[in-house]
Amino acid sequence: MTDDRPRPHADTAGGVLAVDIGGTKLALRAVAAGTTVHERTVPWPAGDDAEADSELLEACVAEAIAALPGAPVRIGVAAAPNVGADATVLSWPNRPTWVGRSLSAPFTGSGAEVLFGDDATLAALAEAVSTAGRDLAYLGIGTGVGGGLVSGGRLLTGAWGTAGELGHLVTDPRGPRCRCGTRGCLQAVVSAEALAAHATAARGLPTSSAELVAGVERAEPWAERTLDHAADSIAGALRVLAELVQPAQIRIGGGLGAALAPLPGRVARRLAATARPGRPLPEVGPAVHGPHSSLAGAALLAARGPHVLNGADLFHEGSPP
């Protein structure tokens, strides 16, 4: 296993700042000389008020920067919303009042270069670097469902920077409608909201995702049925992925994905049942960063710079740290 801590060098002598902008929360990590000197997770304010959100983000960034020994040259941002090349929010189902606003505005007072990456893509970066995984897929399950891909030691970002969106693979054309407007996306079936709804039906009582996790830990029959439902749906999507990009390993994380400890094993067993002769299937396991893969990836982006998003070999000895 490799050491994925940001390594200090001339460009980041003052330390780096990582920010994970999620659907329900904001997470920040300040790192100096390879050591975390500040970390904080804050839920978004109730309601959908982009102005209040922006003020909170700006205050949290200032607090994190104050913990560093010097001014950060770069800030890496893992973004759940769909962000354009100019950092304008193009879509964000969880917080629609942000659409049309600049996500970079709360960072302008930092004086740092701000680099944005898709949250699941950066999660794949962190998982790949930590496991020396040159061919890896990441699946994050939480408020939404995201995915990221590393192939041949390089991030696959695609034409618009968000390649590997596993949550929007259509697994059932007659399935529930996703927030994106399409019917049957994986996200519409296995997101935290979707699994809570399935558990509610299986249990016959209103059930939250936290109660589902507790039910799985106790091996409650209704929770087991919901876990099997999730594993079936995920394995179907990963079967397609395995044929298209042939990852050697698949890491399952995100807030809910990391909390459902038996999930990777069940997905692996279902995937194994679909193996073709002579065609190996990927190893399926939990994300090594648990629910924090996107934040770890944002720290790597800040430490290493934009080349990691532009097809550079993540493991080449000559690559900048």
Please outline what is shown here.
This protein is of the alpha/beta class and 321 residues long. It has 2 domains: 10-122 and 292-309, ATPase, nucleotide binding domain (Nucleotidyltransferase, domain 5), CATH 3.30.420.40; 134-289, ATPase, nucleotide binding domain (Nucleotidyltransferase, domain 5, 2-Layer Sandwich), CATH 3.30.420. The protein is 34% helix and 20% strand.
Give an account of the 3D structure.
InterPro entries: ATPase_NBD, ROK, ROK_cs. The chain is of the alpha/beta class and 321 residues long. It folds into two domains: 10-122 and 292-309, Nucleotidyltransferase, domain 5 (2-Layer Sandwich), CATH 3.30.420.40; 134-289, Nucleotidyltransferase, domain 5. 34% of the residues lie in helices and 20% in strands. It contains nine helices and twelve strands. It has a five-stranded mixed β-sheet with strand order 3-2-1-4-7, sandwiched between helices. It has a five-stranded mixed β-sheet with strand order 10-9-8-11-12, sandwiched between helices. Helix 2 (119-131) crosses helix 9. It is globular, with a radius of gyration of 19 Å. 47% of the residues are buried.
